[in-house]
Recover the amino acids of this structure.
């Protein structure tokens, strides 16, 4: 059946249209080039900035984070990466620390499991656990756990928003959640 004859599966969208709209790479001509820079920039960041790599925040092997410390007593920014819930790790996003650490902001890059190796509720709990761990342990790396902020993009923004909705908002001061897919009914 041609796309023009395909039946809508959600509102007026066909499955093909939904798939295309949920794949952000189709919207940016040089998406693979941009994404390809992430590991290169991140490796350079890890070589340039002092950090604690692979710190465990939970029992699952994926529950690790990297800490890029700044001046003692400063605020803490936790970055939750995107990747369609199935791509990338903390190692691809170390570059987020480049602007924050020199500004006196401790930066934590959170890792978590990917779909489909774990189900969404498990991954959301990992993100929440990671945020709790950072709040409780911020002093150990010079941070102020009462000044905890979250920054996230794409599917990471969805995970962070869901974790905030499951109680993390009681101790996170503010969150910047960019380009998150928050209306997922068509994907269910």
């Amino acid at each position: 059946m041609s796309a023009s004859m395909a039946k809508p599966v959600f509102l007026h969208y066909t499955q093909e249209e939904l798939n295309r709209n949920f794949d952000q790479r189709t919207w940016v001509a040089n998406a693979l080039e941009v994404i390809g820079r992430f590991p290169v920039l991140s490796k350079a960041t890890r070589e340039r900035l002092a950090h604690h790599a692979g710190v465990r925040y939970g029992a699952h092997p994926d529950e690790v984070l990297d800490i890029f410390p700044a001046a003692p007593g400063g605020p803490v920014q936790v970055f939750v990466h995107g990747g369609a819930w199935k791509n990338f790790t903390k190692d691809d996003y170390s570059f987020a620390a480049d602007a924050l650490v020199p500004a006196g902001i401790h930066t934590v890059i959170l890792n978590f499991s990917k779909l489909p190796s774990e189900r969404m509720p498990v991954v959301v709990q990992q993100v929440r656990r990671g945020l709790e761990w950072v709040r409780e342990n911020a002093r150990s790396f010079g941070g102020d756990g009462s000044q905890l902020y979250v920054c996230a993009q794409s599917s990471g923004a969805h995970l962070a928003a869901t974790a905030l909705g499951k109680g993390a908002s009681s101790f996170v001061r503010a969150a910047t959640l960019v380009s998150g897919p928050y209306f997922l009914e068509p994907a269910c």
Q: What stands out?
A: The radius of gyration is 18 Å. The mean pLDDT is 92. The domain at 15-187 is CATH 3.40.50.1820 (Rossmann fold). Strands lie at 52-56, 64-68, 74-80, 106-110, 143-153, 174-178.
